[in-house]
Design goal:
heterodimer, A: alpha+beta, Beta-Lactamase, Helix Hairpins, Heat Shock Protein 90, five-stranded mixed sheet, 9 helices, B: alpha/beta, Rossmann fold, Arc Repressor Mutant, subunit A, 2 domains, four-stranded antiparallel sheet, 39% helix, elongated
Amino acid sequence: MSQLRALLRTTAVRLSALYLGLFAISAVVLVFYVTDMTTSLLTNQTKHVVQDELKVLGNFYRRGGVPLLITHIDRRSREPSANLYTIAAPNGSILAGNVASLQPGILDRQGWTERPFSYRRFYQPEGAPGHQALAEVIFLPNGMRVLVGRDLGEPTQFRTTIRRSLAIALGIMVVGALLIWFFIGRGALHRIDRVSQASQKIMAGDLGQRLPVSGSGDEFDRLSGALNAMLGRIEKLNEGLRQVSDNIAHDLKTPLTRLRNRAEAALSGADDAAEYRSAMEDMIEESDQLIRTFNALLTISRVEAGSAVAEMNDVDLSQIAHDTEELYEPLAEEAGVLISSAIADGIHVSGNRELIGQAFSNLIDNAIKYSADNQAEAKVVICLENVDGKKVLSVRDNGPGIPENRRQDVIKRFVRLDESRSKPGTGLGLSLVEAIMGMHGGQLVLESNGESGQTGLHAMMVFG
Amino acid sequence: MKILVIEDDLEAAAYLIKAFNEAGIVTDHASDGDTGFYLATENIYDVLVIDRMLPKRDGLSIISDLRKKSIETPILILSALGQVDDRVTGLRAGGDDYLPKPYSFSELLARVEVLGRRKGMRDNETVYKVADLELDRLAHEVHRAGQKINLQPREFRLLEYLMKHAGQVVTRTMLLENVWDYHFDPQTNVIDVHISRLRSKIEKGYDEALLRTVRGAGYILKSDS
């Protein structure tokens, strides 16, 4: 019962009830209009026929008077037809014709009968329901009455047929609509029930749940598909968030512990000012690294929040490439890394110079860091070029590279392939590059540096 | 030097006042925007350190109101927002420098000292001199003890900035900002390497080391004699 009530409340039922109602009303109106038009058409035709007959009979009367008129009425009455003929004495008694009896009073008035009247023919038994007819009555100068009319059987039958078919059609419509409501509505209700069950599980915390998709590609599937995509994104974000908080806890706990240990060691050690001083300086450096990590985290989350946070201007990428190369060149030299570049001139993008510069510095910084100790001939190549209409700022190194299956991981926050964490770094560099590229509608692409079978990484900032 | 710190976080303010006093800087404190604005208009300070978000009156509106009253005291903005464009809006409102939280006190101190000595600064001097080191800003030449030293353009700008602020600590971020016009924190010691290159050019073969590292803070160019 409650299911039926739920069914009746569905949109499908409400809409189809509305349409059914409108359709039924218009069908009824149409049918009445058609029958009315047809009836009046047939009535007019009847009147024409009757008047023609009267004209002919009038001719006979003028030629041979009453006797000829009666002869012809008698003759016509024997022919099978829907026409009625009657000639009656002034007192109303029928003298000739094909009518046995008439509705009383019909012969008392000259002219067209206003409404259909009933009559009986000779072959009909007395008391049987009479036929309906329209007729014109004429009084002869001697007081006799002549009636010529036509049976209305045809139009009446026509009207009855149309009305009956209307009733049948409406009946079928109503029954059909009820069946359709029931099945469609119940189907829709079923699917919605399943969707809300799934949503309830999701709300209970199971973000892995997905809304059911039937595979038919209908509107429910499309909606479920879109919601599932949204859930996927939420799950990914949630996963990222959890991972980040785990990592923050871990990555900040380590330096904090180190910081604390140093303070403790200094306190428990010898009471020496120089010793204290050096411990304090170490601690300041350690805290600076912590602040750096925090700043990087903040920048990432702000950049990820969207392009609204930074002013976008016309930026000279070529200039940034040159500046950054120049900034890192001494560092590379000190690390024993040969840095070279192929920078196309005059390449501009719309963006934020600060952020692009920071992103590119991160890539160069990584390249120098990781190529430095791996090769006898460490090389870093900076490149800015137009590739298929895209502007690509890239850094190649010949360090150990990143295995293909880890390339997505290193973009995540705090993920570092170097498990021992022997190299300095926050583990946030590539995350920041990725976030900045996302804000600029571009991409960070990591490939292996395929040059002459070397290992190494080819990190590209691809601007749309 | 006398400065005013407008900061509503009382603990942070107490720490700043103590630290500034230890560095020999007289520090007044206001804990809300209205008091801060009043103090800044009634007294003469060398530097104003203004937190961006304050009760009663927002930091940026204090700055633009002060500038409207033609009070040109150098202003350093402290901000917890740290959004990419915060610096730009802060400087547009009339601030002179900007430091996002969390910051290290050495960074703040170095910046305040640079701002505080800006009045009567050496912008008009065409030749900077520290001991026997000379930098000619017009001729783009550097000499030490009368001998010419060849520097790359960027090395020249680096030395120029250090000499302009001779005797003051300049931090790595200050150098990156003023010499390279980048406002981010490089992850590694890029600046250190530039400094050591510069150092080898201006100090190799000479007795006195002029460019010194201040641990935990930055660099200072000065002569003991």
